[in-house]
Amino acid sequence: MKKYQASIKTPFAHLGICINDDKLEAIDFIESENEIKPGNESTVNVCNQIRQYLDNPKASDRFDISCSLAGTPFQQKVWNELKNIPAGKVVTYGELAKKLGTSARAVGNACRRNPIPVVVPCHRVVSSSGIGGYAGDTSGDLLKIKSWLLQHEGSTIN
């Protein structure tokens, strides 16, 4: 079981926040009734930036949070590219794959393994025929989270 240094209730989910060596390591969608108050400056910074995003997703183009992304070199390449997608914009798995010289399926698999959703905005990658999946699900609560995030940012999906 992960130990969270903070948690935040949001309109779309309760987020558990893991910080290690002052770097954001994971954000999980958790089942809990109680918020965990941040206990150090790094955790306060993460919580504040997430709250600012919730207040106005376009106020800051990107999160300014030091992250520790544990993954393969390819996954890290995809995740770093996701950070360049501004709030309110979407790209398709295929478009991102073409830019990175890989397949849409490989991009989708890297998005599925993103340890820091919202901050590393994998929700901004969609299917060419609709919203696509989120965190490996193509229906249910996780897809509702993706839909909420995209609507919050003012994105439109054809």
Structure description:
The structure is a single chain. With 158 residues, the protein is α+β, with helices and mostly antiparallel strands. It folds into two domains: 6-55, no CATH class; 73-153, Orthogonal Bundle (Arc Repressor Mutant, subunit A), CATH 1.10.10. It has five helices and five strands, in the order E-E-E-H-H-E-H-H-E-H. It has helices spanning 41-55, 73-82, 93-100, 104-112, 141-153, and strands spanning 6-9, 14-20, 23-30, 91-92, 125-126. It has a three-stranded antiparallel sheet with strand order 1-2-3, with helices on one face. A two-stranded parallel sheet has the order 4-5. Helix 2 packs across helix 4 and helix 3 (93-100) packs across helix 4 (104-112). The radius of gyration is 15 Å and the shape is globular. The model has no long low-confidence stretch (mean pLDDT 92).
